[in-house]
Write a structure and sequence with these properties.
The chain has one helix at about 50-75, and strands spanning about 10-15, 20-30, 35-40, 80-85, 100-110, 110-115. The radius of gyration is 15 Å and the shape is globular. The protein is of the alpha+beta class.
């Protein structure tokens, strides 16, 4: 069996300068929720770990500039988006106490993302 090379996610230039890369996209069509999962090793523990406060503006920017245009190209008509960023890859829906993860739900109104409540 041939070896399969793992793909390294390509970083996205976000306003803060943080290194963030798209890990995967999960479309929940019945619920009309688009989940975009990002990676950023800078969230890993330690004295210089990035906090939610430091990354939330980047998540909003990603939603407006990357996610909404990508969803429009796919003719997606839902209005709920959940973005997450973690310090390393995770299995969707499985809690791992060794992984730092931040989540932010958004609602799309007039083509723009606004914070939503869980």
């Amino acid at each position: 069996m041939p070896a399969v090379a793992e793909q390294t996610p390509q970083p996205i230039a976000v306003p803060s300068g943080l290194q963030i890369a798209l890990a995967d996209v999960i479309m929940d069509l019945p619920a009309q929720i688009a989940r975009f999962r990002f990676l950023s090793p800078a969230l890993a523990g330690g004295d210089d770990a990035v906090t939610f406060t430091e990354v939330v503006d980047d998540l909003t920017w990603l939603c407006d500039v990357v996610v909404v245009p990508a969803l429009r190209q796919q003719d997606w008509d839902g209005d709920q988006i959940v973005l997450s960023v973690s310090d390393k890859p995770t299995t969707f829906g499985i809690y791992d106490p060794q992984v730092v993860q931040f989540f932010q739900p958004f609602r799309v109104t007039d083509g723009r993302c606004s914070w939503d409540e869980f």
